[in-house]
Amino acid sequence: MMRKIGCFVAAVAALCASAVASGVVEVEDTTDIDMRTRRTHENNFDANSHASATTEGLHFLAIGDWGGREWWPYTTLAQVRTASGMARVATAQNSSFVLALGDNFYSHGQATPKRFAATYEKAYHQKSLQIPWYVVAGNHDHLGNVTAQLDYHSMDGRWNFPSLFYTVKKKFVTTIVGPDGQKNKKTMEAEFVMIDTVVLAGINALSDSSHPSYFDPLAGPRSADESTKYLRWIDQRLAKSTADYLFVAGHYPVYSACSHGNTEYLIDHLEPLMKKHGVTAYLSGHEHCALHIERETVDFILTGTGDECCYEGSNVDGLPDDADLRYLLSQEQNQHGAVGGFTSFASATDGQARLDVAYHDQGGKELYSTSLYPRKNAGGGASSEMEQER
To answer: How far apart are CA 278 and CA 300, in angstroms?
Structure first.
């Protein structure tokens, strides 16, 4: 641990002054080449370095807004309890990775060695959580040094954050029981397009949720050209996908019934791409609540209670008339007294091609469940890998 932290200190010292002003790092290679070259080099590498190339079933967790506090002990009690619940569920379902959906370090993105050690490594120390974490940045991360989070990618075996935009592909085998009772094994694929919604939609620079303007709508991207560039990249990635399950994962929600409400820029620019290319679900955090919305062909899964619960459900009336709010955990709707939580995804065990999704409280208790089904006409079968933004 001390050797790793010492290495990280040197990296941060060299990079803090040169954090990318736009918040965009195009790529980060893991080979030992010049730092500036490393930011623009195109590279593909194995996303399953901690697991076999093809696993039995697909099992993973998702957590948003888990970033602790910027004072000792750099965690919240709810975060620590949620980590224990995650470990229990990960052990039970044999989870193979975690999606970390932003706001990784509250409140000003202080990605220092001390914070990595306390807020991440110590908080999620359990054996079943020593699996790959695939990370995106949130608005609080962009208030600090996102570059330091990107550089930690090459210093920690489970922290996978090569770029602000990248894709992860997972191949897995599922057992399907036919009408005649015959069991057949089928190789399937899930693809995750990991995106930075702050680059796409902008940021409210406030860090204190008690400020009267904290929940104001976003004004739009800081750079329209940069946002358009990455929307084109997303469009191209989704168009190329032949995965059976196709996910987009970012920090801001597209739709929300809680305090921040909908992200209008993502409704206008991202949702049409997801509909066009048959995305299975959009995964997000940002709101310190949890919800499941179905709208037309896309499921919207928000899991933002990584270290506290809950924001008010004050924007239910702002949802479109055709948006089906299937579940909401909020300050007003919290009959089980949840103080934290996360979401799990697991291949069905009844012989059907299906992905079961469960929302859990801090102890791992299941609060709500739903199911996702394979995309029609999906090709599948591509190699497991992680690809960075080009």
So the answer is: 13
